[in-house]
């Protein structure tokens, strides 16, 4: 190449670069939420500019992720309420993948119950923004909190399931936990709390068992 150096490694691809950028944007959004949480813990009601400075990002960048400080502080309070994977899966956590996945749903269901009004309001604002923002925008509207918990739940299957099967199972479980699943059970299916928990636990168990069964069949 006439002495020039390629800017892209031979193993890189546009899709890989896109994934890196997506992860960076999610990290920036998480940094803003964590910065807001720290300032709230100090007893302050910060401005969006103050949160941006704490997160070491530009003011304009903060406004790309959150339309105003109220939206940021509201979500930061909810972000704190979601358990960290290391907390949910400490030394006392079960090793059984089904029990671990069901533990994620229990934790998130309890969190939604305790913050239902705020979560419904946040979801409504997210849907409104998604309907009006430019389609080309790549800034995430939501923080994906459930994925890290699900990944931690499925750690015992890391050596058992093929990467594609592991990824598919994690995404399928993502449909069954969190605010949307809670609302579907309560508003659409008209289930009481105990039945909603039981139905989701059954569905989660069925998904994990099917994935494990398919993996065992392919390994024979």
Question: Can you characterise this structure?
Answer:
The structure is a single chain. The chain is mainly alpha-helical and 220 residues long. Helix content is 69%, strand content 0%. It contains eleven helices and no strands. The protein has helices spanning 14-41, 48-55, 59-65, 69-81, 85-88, 97-114, 116-132, 146-153, 163-174, 179-188, 193-219. Helix 6 (97-114) runs antiparallel to helix 11 (193-219). The chain is globular and about 55 Å long. 23% of the residues are buried. The model is unreliable at 1-16 (pLDDT under 50).
The H-and-E topology, N to C, reads as: HHHHHHHHHHH
What percentage of amino acids are in beta strands? under 5%
Number of helices: 11
In one word, what is the shape?
Answer: globular
Radius of gyration: 20 Å
Structural classification: mainly alpha
Q: Biggest β-sheet, characterized?
A: none
Distance between the termini: 49 Å
Average per-residue pLDDT, rounded, comes to 85
- Which runs of at least 5 residues are low in confidence (pLDDT < 50)? 1-16
Report the strand count: 0
Roughly what percent helix?
55-70%
């Amino acid at each position: 190449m006439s002495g020039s150096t390629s800017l892209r490694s031979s193993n890189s691809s546009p899709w890989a670069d896109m994934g890196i950028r997506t992860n960076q944007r999610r990290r920036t959004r998480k940094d803003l939420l964590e910065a807001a949480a720290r300032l709230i813990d100090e007893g302050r009601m910060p401005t969006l500019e103050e949160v941006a400075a704490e997160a070491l990002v530009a003011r304009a960048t903060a406004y790309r992720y959150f339309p105003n400080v109220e939206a940021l502080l509201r979500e930061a309070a909810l972000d704190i309420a979601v358990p960290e994977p290391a907390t949910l899966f400490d030394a006392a956590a079960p090793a059984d993948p089904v029990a671990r996945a069901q533990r994620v749903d229990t934790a998130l269901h309890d969190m939604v119950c305790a913050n239902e009004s705020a979560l419904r309001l946040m979801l409504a604002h997210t849907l409104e923004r998604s309907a009006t923002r430019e389609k080309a925008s790549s800034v995430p509207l939501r923080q994906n909190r459930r994925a890290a918990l699900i990944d931690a739940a499925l750690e015992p299957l890391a050596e058992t399931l093929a990467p594609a099967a592991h990824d598919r199972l994690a995404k399928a479980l993502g449909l069954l936990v969190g605010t949307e699943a809670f609302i579907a059970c309560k508003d659409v299916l008209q289930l009481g709390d105990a039945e909603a928990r039981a139905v989701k636990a059954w569905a989660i168990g069925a998904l994990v068992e099917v994935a494990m069964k398919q993996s065992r069949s392919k390994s024979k």
